[in-house]
Amino acid sequence: MNESFFWQLVEGARAETGADSELVAQALLRRLRPLRPDALERFQHRWEQAQDELYGWPVLDAATLLLGPLDDEPARSRAERRPT
């Protein structure tokens, strides 16, 4: 799954439902159901990459500057799950 198709799925689900994260998740699930298992694995891999980028320290540092102190638990828990 290329990055463009990944973001088409995600943005299409957002466009269909708006900002409600629960509705976005449901819409995304509907879009993922017809995909083959290998495409689902590639989607999951790209999803994890996007989360790693989002919860990386540079993004958290920028968010802290804008919003004040944040809980760094998501970043720590993602880093702890990474194979060494």
Notes on the protein architecture:
This protein is mainly alpha-helical and 84 residues long. The protein is built from five helices and no strands. It has helices at 3-17, 21-32, 37-54, 57-67, 73-81. Helix 1 (3-17) crosses helix 2 (21-32).
Mean pLDDT: 86
Rg, nearest Å? 15 Å
Looking at the structure, what is the overall shape?
A: globular
Main sheet?
A: none
Defining traits:
84 residues; mainly alpha; 0% strand
Question: What is the topology?
Answer:
Blueprint: H1 3-17, H2 21-32, H3 37-54, H4 57-67, H5 73-81
In short:
With 84 residues, the chain is an all-alpha fold.
